[in-house]
Amino acid sequence: MTYSVEVRQRAFTLLGQGWSPRQVGLELGVSRVGVSLWRRQVGGVIRERPALSARYLSRAERYELARLHDAGHGVREIGRRLGRSASTISRELARPRRPSGARGRPAGRGVGYAPEACHQAAAAARTRARTSKLSRQPALQAWVQARLDERYSPAQIAGRLRVEHPDDEQMRISHETIYRAIYIRPRGELKRELRAHLRTGRELRRRRATRQTQQTRGRIVDAVSISERPDDVETRLVPGDYEGDLMLGPTGTTAAIGTLVERTSGHLTAFLLPERHTADATLAGLLDAVTRTGWPMRTLTWDRGHEMARHAQFSIATGIQVYFADPHAPWQRGSNENTNGLLREYFPRGRDLATATDAELQAAVDQLNNRPRQRHDFLNPNEVLTAILDQDQQTAGVATTD
Question: 10 Å Cβ neighbour count for 178?
């Protein structure tokens, strides 16, 4: 006889409270032998082990998963109802149904997904001491540590492994495992001082918070709004569209760093304004930087800072149209905002940028242009631009042949 998920859940709850199989059987109308068999299938000891955090499925979630699965719902629908990802549900349904030490046939045989057996097995697995993957694989540990030294983020490290070692399954690690090796009870896998190379440089891992800042901007004469920018710029399919801004030092200083980011590849070009970030100085810096970009510039989208008051002269000299983002809308220049955040790792907010050198700035730019990006399947901006150039040359060669 097959019993419902609700009956089994109630049975395991009573067993966990100390009821005997006979008492549970009388309460639920199930034979004592049947209840004893259920208990053996999950390891013999029934107790509710609270989840360590919301990351882990709870016992109630597993029973709800079983009900939905038995009702014929797919993993995406189950995930939507439980507030979990479809991959989490898929892995849970594929989990071995019998915990270590259980006797008798697997709990899942003949009854589909077995929530109690899976819950007890998962809870038991969390309590076992494990040797970390980095400790077991010195080559992987050395590779990860070297990339942290180059200021890669854990996500970039995990993704770049697949690019550089596509056929070596041993060279695989998740970004979460790297974070745990750094922050959670370090066992010596990664050097403690490498925490300073993470994007935040924090000693403790914290949730990200957002803070909206208000800036007072002067009016730009004859500014062309971003709403008039060609639609194909938004698609990022054609290289040559750039976003730009100035990165300033602390209050009371006048030096700045100008940044230009190519939207398709994320390639960065930067220039130093060591004295003042006036409109004239910015114009001179831009005219020089345009000759050094990774790809010829066709449009430039800038913030509404007064440093771009000479935008008309820039357009006349270069033939490049400048568009201005809306006030207080940094997401309209998201590539530039994100890249400026990366550059801040090398030039923190408290540093007077007048102390920076061109060589120091270029070294930081080179490192960022060689840092893998998740949106490019962990290729770096230099590799992306090279691939675009190669494809363009091949296309031109075919056209010439025809």
Answer: 25
